[in-house]
Amino acid sequence: MVVYLTTFAVFLLVIVAMAVGYIFQRKTVSGSCGGLDGIGIAKECDCPEPCDARKKREARAARQAEWKKNQII
């Protein structure tokens, strides 16, 4: 039982240390290779034209940004 509690405590300490490091550095979480941006890919799919669902999401985000911009003024 002591081994399990010790292991749990070590994992908990590591997770807390990672969280504190993330909070203070304010860096994005990324893999060891830097992710897709490291090889010059801006998005997950390299399609020349986004799909309809993505177009709808982008249009919705643009409307919300415009609405927020108008609310501030």
UniProtKB/TrEMBL annotation:
Domain of life, source organism: Bacteria
Any matching Pfam family: NqrM
Descriptive protein name: Na(+)-translocating NADH-quinone reductase subunit E
